[in-house]
Amino acid sequence: xxxxxxxxxxxxxxxxxxxxxxxxxxxxxxxxxxxxxxxxxxxxxxxxxxxxxxxxxxxxxxxxxxxxxxxxxxxxxxxxxxxxxxxxxxxxxxxxxxxxxxxxxxxxxxxxxxxxxxxxxxxxxxxxxxxxxxxxxxxxxxxxxxxxxxxxxxxxxxxxxxxxxxxxxxxxxxxxxxxxxxxxxxxxxxxxxxxxxxxxxxxxxxxxxxxxxxxxxxxxxxxxxxxxxxxxxxxxxxxxxxxxxxxxxxxxxxxxxxxxxxxxxxxxxxxxxxxxxxxxxxxxxxxxxxxxxxxxxxxxxxxxxxxxxxxxxxxxxxxxxxxxxxxxxxxxxxxxxxxxxxxxxxxxxxxxxxxxxxxxxxxxxxxxxxxxxxxxxxxxxxxxxxxxxxxxxxxxxxxxxxxxxxxxxxxxxxxxxxxxxxxxxxxxxxxxxxxxxxxxxxxxxxxxxxxxxxxxxxxxxxxxxxxxxxxxxxxxxxxxxxxxxxxxxxxxxxxxxxx
Length: 499
Hints:
By secondary structure, the protein is mainly alpha-helical. It is built from 20 helices and two strands. A two-stranded antiparallel sheet has the order 1-2. Strand 1 (66-75) and strand 2 form a beta hairpin. Helix 2 packs parallel to helix 4. The protein is globular.
């Protein structure tokens, strides 16, 4: 198979899996293993690409820093091309996407009892959209895949959600759609400006990076991209859709939303926003610092006040993604590398916590912290994983989240000591609310008799794999750091360093 075909297979293999589900639509005992088999095949392909990737991208390639690329004309009349590329940054996100998708399928194996095939169909369809976002180097293609992600998540929340699921699904849809429309306007504006300046109509990102744009116009275009990406991250005060979506989504939806969809916003800012508009980004850097710090502190304080475990983890995501925004704002190789590492680590840790809360909700039919107590003695295997991932979330050294937060704070401190010090206060509050959660759920005396079964072999296996990844990335993050070093260095150098 030609190397460039691998990228197409990586994107569209899940979509092919959707088609395979159609003949077994009303036979969930067949659709479940078939969908999971496709997810594992996608994970194997992503793992093989990682194993086969050279230590550094070959020099003199059409796209510097990329291992693989594909470029073919698509809609020639408008300069739209089918352009894909895989570098260390996108490969890290591809690995995370393939892994978390498989995890989401396993954790929903028995939780979903109605419209089972449709559930897995939507997860695979969404995986195609997410993979496309991380691999597209044509802005029209990027926007197309960006929109593909929206509908499946809307349906997952609306059909299999809980509580106010319709309200939460519509709120998610409207927020994301508003950001998408702003991004579409900015893409069209950038396309027209580049065409007028160069005489060449194109949506190709490598060409648009060099577009000469008047400062005022660049500021408006960057602001549109920034709003679209900020809604997806989400950045305070555009985060209000997130707690509702997480609280009412099914477990698989919460896992994918936290671990993958939020990362597409941060990825877009790193890959498109700042590289295309470096001067505008410099102008708005103080705003990005402020939003990152507010997200960290605000998310941590509000999480501390929650009584619903799922809502607490949702608000913790606002705080953890604040570190990602802060690292991107500093735009140094160390801080951006820390942001990418934090994106991966947050996906692992928060995905595991949502899975654990979902497992407990299946058994107890409640997520209220006050309803539990004494789980360490009652369900020891479950309690061990809950304890481990809570420690990872609070940033314990030796576990994965510590590495990303440490690198972000190190890089940010060089650029803005004030922002770094303020962000550190959020870590302190995170420590407090996660310790409180562990104490209330695991160690205090059981409040009321609630017979609970410990983890099944399936649940234990998936959590064990997540724990192994969390410990490995905490103890030995070098492979992931080496993977993203070159693309981050190229991106930051191309824009002149700190914006």
